[in-house]
Amino acid sequence: MNKSQSKSNDQIIGIDIIRFLAAMLVLLYHSSYTGWAIKDSSLQKLTGESYSFPEIAQFSWWGWVGVEIFFVISGFVIAYSALKSTPINFAISRAVRLYPGAWICATISLLITLALVNHKNPIFIEQYIRSITISPFGPWIDGAYWTLGVEIAFYTSILIVIQIFGAKRLYHATAFIGLASVAFYAFLLGMLAHKDFQTVINLVTSTRIINLSLLGHGVFFALGALIQKSSHSKLNNAEKVLATLFTFFCIIEIYLTSAIKFHIELDNRNHVYGAIPALAWCLCIYLISKATRDNEIWGKYLSPSISRRVGLITYPLYLSHTTLVGVILFLAFQFDINKWIALITSAIVVLVISDALAQRIEHPLQNWLRIVLLKRFPSQTHPVQAQQNQ
Fold first, then answer.
1. Rounded to 5 degrees, what are φ and ψ at 293?
2. Whether the Cβ atoms of residue 236 and residue 212 lie closer than 8 Å to each other
3. Cβ(335)–Cβ(51) under 8 Å?
4. 112: Cβ contacts below 8 Å, ≥ 6 apart
5. Within 10 Å of residue 166's Cβ, how many Cβ atoms?
6. Where along the chain do its domains lie?
7. Consecutive sets of 10 residues in the chain, 390 residues long: mean pLDDT of each?
8. Cβ(66)–Cβ(22) below 8 Å
9. How far apart are alpha carbons 237 and 243 in whole angstroms?
10. Cα dihedral angle (109, 257, 188, 223), rounded to 10 degrees?
11. Residue 30 gets which letter from DSSP?
């Protein structure tokens, strides 16, 4: 196999595109829905009185499901990465992936927040420190950082497993994480059967420990890992049952989040609110499952270099879009600019800035951090995959 083929095989074009689409869903949700429809949202705190977009609410209110798509992609990518890396290299790669982007985007968010908010509250500095250190507990300078603690909890679980047992136990670990999450949601369904709605609401919305323990989203990571395994080997019957079970409970989580997020009665017979984001999620999961097998087909229509660049935009876009959109909508509102022009302009500006951050600042900073960490923690000579064969 030549180098170009190896590079092509390492890149899954469909994953980059789906990751980008998930980020755009979150961008649409925050820019055109939460700023006016959800009281005290991050965007509303920045912009104050600003535009409202009820005309497209039916398309924007469910954009939060992009996060659930991210978690499945993360399970896929981490399983792929962990199988090909040593424990120390795995840890370094995750730190290099997360921290430089967080440092850059949190700094931008802090500066914009200080410029827009009238009172210079010392808590902003505390939120900034929590963000650049990716503290598992908020508040952060931007609400988007809540997912990073969940991601790190998953990475840490996988790191511990491959360090102690080797990669041969990777899928056992993700299955355990998924089943623990299934048990949690089965418990919630039992609470619903007994009409204990408040317990369900409290557990889903108010308990950070639930998120960090992966009970809340572990089922998404586990499904992503199984999809990754199916891309290179046939799943056995037990794994097929797990994939079906995980998919079902992912949909349960999406429905419960829809119901609670928008204050719909949980015993309401109208399930359309949960069905819309669930169907969008299912479509993306189907595409993820086909992404590896259809990589050559994706490559016929999309340049690998372009898709890679689009994929790299995703992280700074996700972390900085709320404050970037906030400052643009705030200024546009002050000058009485048409709201649709303001909305479209904000999306374009966010994409351009995110691309510039990824290419010009984040990438060099990642290279620097990688060098520093590799000097401090020299790479192991025996890959995890070698452990798998022992």
1. -65, -30
2. no
3. no
4. 46, 323, 324, 326, 327
5. 17
6. 30-48+63-389
7. 45 92 96 85 77 90 95 96 90 96 96 78 88 94 94 96 90 96 93 79 78 95 96 93 97 88 52 82 94 83 89 96 93 93 96 96 96 86 38
8. yes
9. 10
10. -80
11. I
Is there a contact between 130 and 140 (Cβ–Cβ < 8 Å)? Answer: yes
Residue type for 358, please?
Answer: A
φ, ψ of residue 12 to 5 degrees: the values are -105, 105
Q: Where are the alpha helices (DSSP H) in the chain?
A: 3-10, 13-29, 35-37, 42-47, 57-60, 65-83, 87-116, 123-132, 146-164, 170-193, 197-205, 208-212, 218-230, 237-261, 272-291, 295-301, 304-334, 339-356, 363-376, 384-389
Closest CA to 217 of 150, 161, 160: 150
- The tokens of 353 are what? 């800035």
Residue 11, both tokens: 């890149």
Structure tokens at 74: 């993360």
d(CA 264, CA 261): 8
Indicate the helix (H) or strand (E) that contains 268.
Answer: none
Instruction: Please state, in angstroms and rounded to a whole number, the distance separating the CA atoms of residues 71 and 281.
Output: 11
Q: Are 310 and 16 in contact (CB under 8 A)?
A: yes
First to last CA, the chain: 26
SS3 377: coil
Q: Residue 200, class by beta-carbon neighbours within 10 Å (0-12 exposed, 13-18 middle, 19+ buried)?
A: buried
Mapping DSSP to helix (H, G, I), strand (E, B) and coil, where does residue 164 land? helix
Positive or negative: CA dihedral 263, 264, 267, 273 = negative
CB 321 within 8 A of CB 26: yes
For residue 314 the two structure tokens come to 């995703």
Position of tokens 């170009």?
4
SS3 (DSSP) at 217: coil
